[in-house]
Amino acid sequence: MDTSTPDDVEQAVPEPMTEPEFDVVAALMRLEMADAGIRSRLRDRLHLNATDLAAVQYLARADAAGRTVYSKDLAAVLGVSAPAVTAVVNRLIRAGHLVRTTDPERPRFRLLTLTDETKALLTDIIGDTQVLLQTVVAKMSNRDKKRAVALITELARALDDGAHPRPGLLDGASAAEREAAPEG
């Protein structure tokens, strides 16, 4: 039985950031705020929860890239089970954002595509954001693109890892606090 308390848990105290490190973190936070603003506008205008919005955004990106999407693809991207993705798909269909059609090449499979109305709403809400982002990325060298992907991936991993409680932090917490905490 672990008898440690939150005070017993050794916590790493980072060294003070250098100015360039601070600038990178500040830029990341600015990016997060800009992304949160777009997501908020999309949720409000499309009347979607966060999961449904993530599904719509993935379907829009897949459509722009000419890729087909099936429920299993959406489940993998959202990190949910088959029954959970079925609930998401059904909500989006009822809301008029999504259609499910038979794949002509694989009749047993159903393709997921956004409705023309939802595509138009996305274009109206987001405007030229995608074009502007593509313009910025197109100016980068292939080497810089690879470095950017590596950096963004590592930053995302740090954000994901930092979101989990450290062992011992919930010792002594109330049942409600333990239940509300994400699994580590």
Low-confidence segments, ≥5 residues, pLDDT <50? 168-184
Q: Which word captures the global form?
A: globular
What's the SSE pattern? HHHHEEHHHH
Helix content estimate? 55-70%
Strand arrangement across the biggest beta sheet: 1-2
Distance between the termini: 18 Å
Give the DSSP E fraction (strand runs of 2 or more residues).
Answer: 5-15%
Number of separate strands: 2
Structural notes for this entry:
This protein starts with 18 loop residues before the first helix and ends with a helix. With 184 residues, it is mainly alpha-helical. The longest helix has 28 residues, at 19-46. 61% of the residues lie in helices and 5% in strands. It has helices at residues 19-46, 50-64, 71-78, 82-94, 116-126, 129-138, 142-162, 175-180; strands at residues 98-102, 110-114. Helix 1 (19-46) packs across helix 5, helix 2 (50-64) packs across helix 4 (82-94) and helix 3 crosses helix 4. It is globular and about 55 Å long. A two-stranded antiparallel sheet has the order 1-2. The protein contains 8 helices and 2 strands; from the N terminus they run H-H-H-H-E-E-H-H-H-H. Mean pLDDT is 84; it is low at 168-184.
Give the key terms.
61% helix, two-stranded antiparallel ribbon, globular, mainly alpha, disordered C terminus, 2 strands, 8 helices, 184 residues
